[in-house]
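So, who can interpret the following?
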Amino acid sequence: MYKLFADLRTGFLAIFCALFLTLAPALAQDGLFTVSDVLVDVTAENAIKAREQAFAQAQGDAFKILAERMLPEMEAESFTPPDAAVISPMILDFEVTKEQLSSTRYVGTYTFSFSPGAVRSYFGARNVTYSDVKSRPVLILPFLEIGGQQLLWSPFNVWAQAWNRAEKLQSGLVPLVVPLGDLADAQDISDNEAMHYDRQKLANIVKRYETGEAVMVVATPNEALAGAIENDSPAQGIITIRLYRTDRNAAEASQELTLSAEPGESIASLLDKAVKNVKAALQSDWKARTAARTSETIRLQARAPFASLGQWTDTKRALDRVYGLENVRVSSITPQYAVLDFAFRGDEARLKQAMAQAGLILTGGTPILMPDTRPGSMPVPASYEIYLREFAPPGALQNEMQPAPTPQQPYGQQPSAPVTPYQRLQEYRSRQTPTGVRPGAWRDMYQQQGSQQQSQTQTAPYEEQPAYQQRF
C-alpha cells in the first residue's frame, strides 16, 4: 500500500513539474512598457547622420514618455531622460513603422519595447517613487448632461463622440475602454441612468467588455457653452466633468474637473482636451494609490490551494500577470496546495491591490502542515493564502481589501479640505440651471454639420521607405 501511494505521489509530482516548467511564458510585449508613435524629425549634414541622431533622440523621447506613465506628476515634469547609451540596454526591441528621408533630413516614427526588469532596476537604483501596478481596464460611460437630460447613446452626445475619436486610451497604467453603444449596451444602461442604474445590468456590460469596473463620466456645460454647442459656434463658457465610481452600492463621486474654453476654440477641441484631462486624472489617482519605492520591497510566503491541475494552471497564469511580483518560487507542493515564496515591491496593501487586478485574492492564512510531515507534528504557520477570485471561500471575499479613493479637486488645482459625496451632490444640484435647449435643436444642428468629419492628412515631400523591424 505504501509503495502504491508513493508511486501515485511521484506521478503527481512529475506531472506537476512538467506542467510548471511549461507554464514559464516567453517574454511577451507589455503594454505598459511599450511606447509607440514616437515621431522624430532631424536635419543634419547628410541622411546617415540625420538617421543616427534621430534614433538617439527617439530613444530619449520614448523613455521620457515611459517615465511620465510611471512617475508621479511632480517628478515626471522634472524628469530628464539619460543618454542613449544608458537607455539602449533597457530596450528589448524596436520597430520603425514609417520613415521619410532626403539628402539632409530624416523623419521617422518608432515603437520601443522596454525590459520591465531593466526599467525597474533603473528607477530602483535611484530610489525613485514609481508605480508599475497596472489597473484592470476601466469602462468609460460618457454622459452629456444638457437641457435637463443625461444623454448617453444619443447621436447628439458630442461628449461621447470626443471619447470615440480619442487615441491611445489603452496606454498607461489605467487602460480605458469606450463601449460601442449597440443594442446590448442600450439594454443594460440608458439615458438618465448615470445615478440610478441597475447594478446587475451594469455588471453585465462591465463583464461583456472584460473590464474591472465602470466609471460614469458626466460632462455638464454651463448655459453659455450649451448655447455654443446648439448653434455650432466657437466654444465659450465652462464645462464641468464629474467622475463617479460604480463598484459600491451606488454611484459615488470621486473626482471633478473644470475646463474653460479658450478664445476662438472649437467645441471639438475643448472636448478633446477634456478627454485628455480625464485620462490624466485617472492615471494620477491610480499612481498615487500604487506608487512605492524599491527600498520598500517585502518577501512573503503564501499557500495557493487548488482542487485540480487546471485550477493551479489558472492560478499560475494569474500570478504571472501581477505587476511587481518577483522571484516567485514553489517551495513545496501537495495535491491540495502549493507553498510559494516571492518578493514584492511595496507594502501589503499594495500587494493585495496588485493581485486583485490579476483576479486573485490575498488573505490571511491558517497554520498548515508542510509535505511529508508526520501526523502529530507541529503545524508550520502560513501568513497568507492566495485564491483565484472565482474559487475563493466566502470569508476571503468578505475580507477583500477595497480602498476608497480620496476625493480629488479639479485636475491641476491645489487640493483643499475633503468634501463628502453628499456635499458634492448637494453642491452639484444647487448649481444646475435650465439651459433652455429647444426641442429639435440637436437634430437641426447635426443636419447642418453632417455625421462625418473630414480628416486631414499631410504628405511629407520626401521619399517614403518601407517599414522595417530590428532587434538587438
Observations:
- Residues 34-116+460-471 form one domain.
- The radius of gyration is 26 Å.
- The chain has three domains: 34-116+460-471, 138-290+422-437, 293-398.
